[in-house]
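Usage

Read records sequentially. Each one opens with the input sequence:
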Amino acid sequence: MTTVVAFILMFGVLVSIHEWGHLIFAKRAGMLVREFAIGFGPKIISFTKNETLYTIRLIPAGGYVRVAGDDPEIVELKPGHHVALDFNKDGKVSQIIVNNKSKHPNARTIEVEKVDLDHRLYIEGYELDDEDTKLHFDVDLKAMFIVDEQETQIAPFDRQFASKSVGQRGMQLFAGPMMNFVLAIFIFLLLGMIQGVPSEEAQMGEVQPESPAEEAGLQENDVIMQIGDQSISTWEQFTDIVREHPGEELDLVISRDDVEQELTVVPAEVEDVNEQGDPIQIGQIGVLPTYEKDILGTLAFGFETTYETSKLILTNLVMLVTGQLSIDVLSGPVGIYDATNQVVQSGFTNFLMWTAMLSINLGIINLVPLPALDGGRLMFVGLEAVRGKPIAPEKEGVFHFVGFALLMLLMIVVTWNDIQRLFL
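and closes with the structure output:
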């Protein structure tokens, strides 16, 4: 149950902060945001505030912000349609009732002849019992379509995604991944304040129970002075040598309470992969570095750890694309849940670290120029900036539709691999 709650909270935070970035910059640009959704599928919870419908949906596989004009509008009014009109106190159309007109007896029913709800905001037509008198009605900026008793606000062109500048649209698309990096930096800063930042000195922090380090007699605060004939001055030097000698005896010279001692440790053999994606054995002895509290160090830790984690994820992504890593290394929701379960058991700070790493991963993946992702849509905005005119919406729509189908197929394959690893 702890893992389930942790996973739901983690998923909710990662998706919410991503979509919140899209939402804020859409509203700052004057776009009409129709829906802010966490999850997909049927609605579980929904409410409307400041023109936007906020929903939590059943399937926890992402989220979205739906901006007017970004997707096809729900209602397209054409000449010949019969609609009922309701008016506000200024005499402008406030409701356009598409069906179930009998439920609105005070509304005025007309047959539409001309309509412009993008620029000039008017409807012209005839009452059903008087086809000789053309009527002209101005439409309110925030008029509502009523379909099956559900309201949908109209979107004049200046409230639509396409009406905004290349910079505004690009920023609205980039803001989601950007907020994932901001979240990661915040979490790493929080970790730095809670537990301090890792010391560069080769000094032992926590020694894991029943680990090679404990069996060798290493204790917290021991300082590694020498391994074999090589002098040690940093934690990185120490861990590099340990990693390179799995299963081999290492002779250590340590300083404990300013007294030098000699110990021998045999690193455990642990499976890992090299830069080419091939399986290798590395050494681990089961110790953590010491941590120190330092304001400037904490600030540096937040940004540097985000940078280093981003670089590692990008390196693995390039290796995956070039075939150096197999698709089998990818994990979907099932694999992430299993990994989260293991992390939760190891403590709250490790869970925070895991959340930050997943946030960076989400940000990077969304910036990849693939169809249906933020990166794919940013690519089209970039092409428009270069060409001086947009790509035809129909072509872009086909590109994203095909890409989305392929991404769903990839998700199925990855989920099946996760299930095989866990249960088969």
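Summary fields computed downstream for this record:
- The CA atoms of residues 69 and 174 lie 18 Å apart.
- The two ends are 24 Å apart (CA to CA).
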